Amino acid sequence: MNPEIKLRKAEIEDRNIIWGIIQQSIERRRQDGSTQWQNGYPNLDTVESDIAKEFGYVLTVDGEIAVYAALILNDEPAYSKIEGAWLSNGEFVVVHRVAIDEKFAGQGMVKKLFDHIEDFTKSHGIQSVKVDTNHDNIAMLKILEGKGYSYCGEVLLKDGMRKAFEKIII
């Protein structure tokens, strides 16, 4: 029997579950020797802000939160200055703060998240998805490559340089 997998907006009642998932991801990044997410960001305030601004989304498996991500429409100031070039100048969805519950790790859930994000993007008539990740986040780099995202260059976020990717959806 196939599990029911859905993408929905995060609700304030989800914040502690989301924060727990992000804490797992912070620890995983630390154990992998990464500098990403090792300076107090993201934190519970980040999650609460995402939810209040309606940026927070969760991928659920049979109703249980498996993956968290922030989806932001047309707004990432750091993306206006790229060392390289974006594929497009149209409307875009920015994907930030992707975190998966350890219980669901290794099951292709982040790939499914990106499938749902791309469907969301297409259904809203938005041209592309843009995302950045740390140079040492091998898992995310592999996912982006596998999903057909193009490397566009480097962007400077508050915690350092990131590899930037884009995929044209429509």
From TrEMBL:
Swiss-Prot/TrEMBL keywords: Transferase
Record-linked InterPro entries: Acyl_CoA_acyltransferase, GNAT_dom
GO MF entries: acyltransferase activity, transferring groups other than amino-acyl groups
SUPFAM superfamilies xrefs: Acyl-CoA N-acyltransferases (Nat)
Residue span, N-acetyltransferase domain: 5-166
Superkingdom of source: Bacteria
Protein name per UniProt: GCN5 family acetyltransferase
Protein source organism: Chryseobacterium artocarpi
